Amino acid sequence: MRDMTAAARAPGRVELLGNHTDYNEGVVLGAAIDRRATVTGASRADETIAIRSADFGAVKVQLSQLRPLTENRWANYALGVVHELRELGVPVAGFDAQVSSDVPIGSGLSSSAAFELASALFILKLFPHQLAPMEIAKACQRAENHFAGVQSGLLDQITSLFGRKDCAVFFDARTEEVRIVPFPAGLALVIAESGKKRELASGEYNLRREQTRAAAAALGVHALRDLNSAMLASRSDIPALLRSRAAHIVGENDRVWHAVELLNRGDGEGFGQLMNQSHESSRQNFENSTPELDLLVSIARQLPGVLGARLTGGGFGGATVTLCQRAGAVEIANKLSRKYEAQTGIAPRVFVCEIADGAA
Ligand code: GLA
To answer: Which of 19, 192, 238, 315 is the most exposed place for a label (fewest CB within 10 A)?
Structure first.
C-alpha cells in the first residue's frame, strides 16, 4: 500500500467574554488567533502511532494499547483524539506524525484544543470518514476530558474550528448555535501572559465545575443557564459561595447577549466596558483571577487607547486580553510589558494578536 500523507493546522483562541459559561449551558464569545498547531505525517503499514514534537520529544504507541500516558503527557491530546475518533467509527490505523505549535502553552489560549483539532483533521484526512464539524469538536473535547483529565467545556474547540478572520465567534452551549459576529474595525486585541504557570489550574477548574453544578442544584434549576439575576437576588437562602459562583455565570451570560448587540452595532467602547465588568466578576465572584492578572488588567486600563481588559480562559494564571485602538496597539503592548516588569520583575510575553480563520 502506498503511504498517504496529510497536513492540518488549527489555531489557538482567545476568550472575549463568557467566562466558565460553556459547561453551564450558557453563551460565550471567542475568536481564533494567529497562533496555531500543525500536524503533518503519513500512514504506516502497521498498527503503530509514532508522534514526534520538536519541543517535547517522541512517543510510540500501539493502537491496541491506547490509554493516557503518565509520562510524555503532551501526547495525550493526540492519543485521546485517536481514541475518540475510533469510537466514532473512523478507521484509524498506524501513522507517523510531526507536531509543532506556536500557541503559548499554559496561558489560557487553548494550545491543547489547537493540538487536538489539528490532530483530528490530520487523522480524518489520512483515514477519511464523514463527520460533522460539531461532532469533530465534541470528540476533541472528550479527548481532553478523558485523556488529559480536564473537565472543560466546548468553547475552545468550537472557536478553533469555526473561527473566522476579523470576526468573533458566538457559541450557545445549550442549542449548539454558532454565529459569526463582526469585530469592530479599527480595534485590536493585545494578549499579555502573566508568566505564572497554572500548576493547580485543572484542579481549580474542575472544582469550579463542581461548585456551579452544586449552585444549580441548590437553586433548583437544571443548569445555571436557566437562572436570571432577579431569581438569584431573591435567593439568600443558599450558601454565599454558591451564590457568588452563580452570580458570575448569570452576569457573564447577560454580558455575552448584550455584547452581541453591541458588536453588531460596532460599539467597541460598550464592549470594552463589558470586558472590564467580566474581570471584576471573575475576581470577586468566581475567584479565578490572580494578583498578576489583576495587575495586568489594572495597568492596561490606565493606558490611553484601551477600551477594556480582562483575564481570558480558565484563569488561575495564564493571560489577559486587552481591547484597544488598533493605531496604538503596539505601543500599548510595549508599555504594558514594561510597567508589569517594573512592578513584578517578570518579563511578560505581550503581543498584538490578529483574529484568524479556524482550523483547516
Ligand atoms: C477553559 C476551558 C473552556 C472554558 C474556559 C472558561 O478554556 O477549556 O471550556 O470553560 O476555560 O470559560
So the answer is: 238
